[in-house]
Give the backbone structure.
Amino acid sequence: MQKKIIIDCDPGHDDAMAIIMAASGASHLQLDAITTVAGNVDVAKNTKNALRVCELIGLHDVPVAMGADRPLVREPLEASHVHGKSGLDGTALPQEPAKQPVDQHAVDVLIEKLMASDGAITIAAIGPLTNIALSIRKEPRIVPKIKEIALMGGGTYGNRTPAAEFNIYADAEAAKIVFESGAPITMFGLDVTHQALATSDKLEELKAIDNPVATAVADMLTFYSGAYKGKFAGAALHDPCPIAYLIDPAIVELDSVRVDVETTGEFTYGMTVVDLKGATGRKANVHFARQLNPDRFWQLFMDALRSY
Ligand code: BDR
Ligand code: CA
């Protein structure tokens, strides 16, 4: 049976790659909906980018729903220094996609689909967690219906601040609600996404695939790699990590741990406090991805692109 997933995202180069990977014939995932949230850029641009990606890959029958335009409490924060002003700079995707978002808020799409399900839907959350938190608050009965939330966020160190990763920092209050909700969470933080580095040989491999989707992804990667130059051996493909795991769970080693989200610290706002040593004695709420199999990751990534 195909795994049913909803991708909640803020595309974003690595979000776009995650959608492309999930929607590929090679993934064996069933993409039920794409919901968008303010994050890398504003929610209108992120939504348009999701639609542009759908157009690129011919994904006509999957609804795209626009969600929260700001975090629960704080002012919106962007990452256009990484993804460019459009959120998806450096790519030749259709500028004005024909596909339109559905006439329903992302939160209502999430609630409707989860409530109508028999507990088989997984959420891949790869942006700030605002939509997921709002859905839980609006309809708490969705929590036992969620099969799993595979999320990209947090880590034992940060990228937006020394302590905090962007997705959690962008809406830590929402992240706190989600982490404390009781829903099964599998967390792909920076510890593991920094193991998925697109070195120059990967870019060459991608270019050699030579189909329109792989070429577009190569362009995305070329732009996105700019933000990593001089700091890392390649760009970190954060958001494809949870997708790779949903395709093949054996790709990561997981630890069952307690993770709490800091919302008040002067220097640590948005930090995910990962209790790796069991110091708190508190009940584990997260499957924390510690170790990635990079060879398998790249195999899945390239297979997905070859399938277009
Ligand atoms: C996360 O932040 C965003 O810029 C990326 O799309 C990813 O989801 C990495 O910290
Ligand atoms: Ca993202």
In short: The chain has twelve helices and twelve strands. Residues 3-306 form a domain with the Inosine-uridine Nucleoside N-ribohydrolase; Chain A fold (CATH 3.90.245.10). The radius of gyration is 18 Å.
